Amino acid sequence: MSRKQVDHDYNLRSMSNLMGERWKKVNDGGERSLIKAPSSATSSSTTTTTTTGDLERAARKQFQQDVTPGFVYVLAVFSALGGFLFGYDTGVISGAMLLLKRELDLSALWQEVLISSTVAAAALSALLGGFLNGLFGRRVCILLASFFFTVGGIVLSTAPGKEAFLTGRLIVGVGLGIASMTVPVYIAEASPPQLRGQLVTVNTLFITGGQFTASLVDGAFSYLQHDGWRYMLGLSVLPAVLQFVGFLFLPESPRWLIQRGLTQKARRVLSQIRGNQNIDEEYDSIKNSIEEEEKDSGGDGPVIWRMLTYPPTRRALLVGCGLQMFQQLSGINTVMYYSATILQMSGVRDDRLAIWLAGLTTLTNFLFTLLGVWLVERVGRRKLTLGSIIGTCLSLSLLAIGFLMSAQHSPPVTFHPLDPAMANSTCSKYQLCEPCMLDPGCGFCYRENGSALLTSSCVPVNKASTEQAAWGRCSNSSLMKDQTYWAYNYCPTSYSWLVLLGLVLYLAAFAPGMGPMPWTINSEIYPLWARSTGNACAAGVNWTFNILVSLTFLHLAQFFTYYGAFFLYSSLALLGFIFIYGCLPETKGRRLEEIEALFENQLCSCGASDSDEGRQVEYIRVKGSNYHLSDNDASDVD
Ligand SMILES: O[C@H]1[C@H](O)[C@@H](O)[C@H](O)[C@@H](O)[C@H]1O
């Protein structure tokens, strides 16, 4: 939308307010002036024959003087603690697992179960969250989520065994699912339109901030071999309690209150959030839209059915779920979960150093999400998402090329030691490091002299700990003499710089757009009656594809090699680009109530609405102004 048109829209909107206030003043007998207009405008308000030029000037002045009250920021930050916990709880487990698997003697299966149980619980509870949101409201759902985070954190940090730990992970997962779908909706519903994108994006900034904090905490407590994991997981209780207490005092979403018919309360909350600015026009607009939406929404039946049978919401749901699906299919969580392995490929052999350096990945993700917060209201959602996904696609190709070069220059196996148990292992058949590394049962044991590799062998991995070989030189750290290394899941390579470059570019491209925009856009594309269900479905899709991609990554790498897997993600990102190009309309600057109209056209003509800004004028209601005059609905002018 051009700047000029935004100004024009606001002028009209402000004018409608201004006119309302003037009528009010006339009716009040001219006793008070409710707008902070310049003296010229104020004096002319004693008559209703003011010229449009005067009105427009005064409206412009008034609009320029509007400041966003601080309360909306407080509200956004307390809600975004839910995002922080999302990032922290999904991020902290990788470091905690390193300690936990030794202390609780976990098999590979148990490790997988403990990691994926949270994500699976989140997928289910996100869907359930839609129902809870509609029934109890956003505030109760956020309170519920922080309650689950708190209880889950306590159970995890005090767990006596793996079963109790699994229970804790499931409880946290339930909190995650509810928070992930509620928080963006709550922030979007409380924000003024010109700030909405930025404030909802802050939630993703908190997610990546949580992931970054988790990597620092993992690094710090990795030195505490005994019970370190209890502190790592227990720390999440602090932000959870803070959010719970905060939300005891924060208000419900005004839009939800209006929908529930609690109009007086809604007016009070709206004026509290807007810092006692005039809320008549906004209140009126929300109320009317809800009434109209309810007429349009196709009668009875479950919300999801009504959404699917009403074309605009069906299209919005497709776009929302598609965005979340492509976010995960672009492989963000393989990069987040396996960055330590990728770093090891680039020559970092010390485990602790790899954990710390993995923190750099999460820091990059966080910093570039910050760029997204800055860009979202400047360039708009559509351009930001398109730019981001094309960058993601290219950098994934670069990552793949890095892995390809490493594979093509894979070091050979030069030494074939005899298995002491005389067992016939497949590992001894490999002639190169690449296939040896891709076999989850084997690892590469080698000596290094300068840049030359000597006596390299492919031997079975220790089933209890992938950090060692089952037998031989690499089976015990004290046996590993100087310059002897054990590489599991990676091969020593001189092309690691290409992989690292790809990784950094990937995060720089993904984090400002594809990271936050699916959440931000989902929070604004559904009409109120469909908002919680729409967000619940989209969040459910996000969690489902998260688990699908992260659980299949290693198998995918085994069958298609690392470069094959990353080329696949790159092609999926390209598909995502085509989908977004065709289907995602621009929602920047529009009121939530106006956005439904963007989905009235055919699905794949959405890009056209970018230039279709004249439509904006249709939605400006002058009702707010007439409201005081007659309180008579028949006098509304659309
Ligand atoms: O938007 C977030 C963010 O990009 C995170 O880094 C990622 O781990 C999540 O899966 C995603 O939903």
From TrEMBL:
<keyword id="KW-0812">Transmembrane</keyword>
<protein>
    <recommendedName>
        <fullName>Proton myo-inositol cotransporter</fullName>
    </recommendedName>
</protein>
<feature type="transmembrane region" description="Helical">
    <location>
        <begin position="495"/>
        <end position="515"/>
    </location>
</feature>
<comment type="similarity">
    <text>Belongs to the major facilitator superfamily. Sugar transporter (TC 2.A.1.1) family.</text>
</comment>
<dbReference type="InterPro" id="IPR005828">
    <property type="entry name" value="MFS_sugar_transport-like"/>
</dbReference>
<dbReference type="GO" id="GO:0016324">
    <property type="term" value="C:apical plasma membrane"/>
</dbReference>
<feature type="transmembrane region" description="Helical">
    <location>
        <begin position="229"/>
        <end position="250"/>
    </location>
</feature>
<feature type="transmembrane region" description="Helical">
    <location>
        <begin position="70"/>
        <end position="88"/>
    </location>
</feature>
<feature type="region of interest" description="Disordered">
    <location>
        <begin position="34"/>
        <end position="53"/>
    </location>
</feature>
<feature type="transmembrane region" description="Helical">
    <location>
        <begin position="353"/>
        <end position="376"/>
    </location>
</feature>
<dbReference type="Pfam" id="PF00083">
    <property type="entry name" value="Sugar_tr"/>
</dbReference>
<keyword id="KW-1003">Cell membrane</keyword>
<feature type="transmembrane region" description="Helical">
    <location>
        <begin position="140"/>
        <end position="159"/>
    </location>
</feature>
<feature type="transmembrane region" description="Helical">
    <location>
        <begin position="199"/>
        <end position="217"/>
    </location>
</feature>
<keyword id="KW-0813">Transport</keyword>
<keyword id="KW-1133">Transmembrane helix</keyword>
<feature type="transmembrane region" description="Helical">
    <location>
        <begin position="536"/>
        <end position="556"/>
    </location>
</feature>
<feature type="transmembrane region" description="Helical">
    <location>
        <begin position="316"/>
        <end position="338"/>
    </location>
</feature>
<feature type="transmembrane region" description="Helical">
    <location>
        <begin position="108"/>
        <end position="128"/>
    </location>
</feature>
<dbReference type="InterPro" id="IPR020846">
    <property type="entry name" value="MFS_dom"/>
</dbReference>
<keyword id="KW-0472">Membrane</keyword>
<dbReference type="InterPro" id="IPR036259">
    <property type="entry name" value="MFS_trans_sf"/>
</dbReference>
<feature type="domain" description="Major facilitator superfamily (MFS) profile">
    <location>
        <begin position="75"/>
        <end position="588"/>
    </location>
</feature>
<keyword id="KW-0597">Phosphoprotein</keyword>
<keyword id="KW-0325">Glycoprotein</keyword>
<feature type="transmembrane region" description="Helical">
    <location>
        <begin position="165"/>
        <end position="187"/>
    </location>
</feature>
<dbReference type="GO" id="GO:0005366">
    <property type="term" value="F:myo-inositol:proton symporter activity"/>
</dbReference>
<dbReference type="InterPro" id="IPR005829">
    <property type="entry name" value="Sugar_transporter_CS"/>
</dbReference>
<feature type="transmembrane region" description="Helical">
    <location>
        <begin position="562"/>
        <end position="584"/>
    </location>
</feature>
<feature type="transmembrane region" description="Helical">
    <location>
        <begin position="388"/>
        <end position="407"/>
    </location>
</feature>
<dbReference type="InterPro" id="IPR050814">
    <property type="entry name" value="Myo-inositol_Transporter"/>
</dbReference>
<dbReference type="InterPro" id="IPR003663">
    <property type="entry name" value="Sugar/inositol_transpt"/>
</dbReference>
<comment type="function">
    <text>H(+)-myo-inositol cotransporter. Can also transport related stereoisomers.</text>
</comment>
<feature type="compositionally biased region" description="Low complexity">
    <location>
        <begin position="39"/>
        <end position="52"/>
    </location>
</feature>
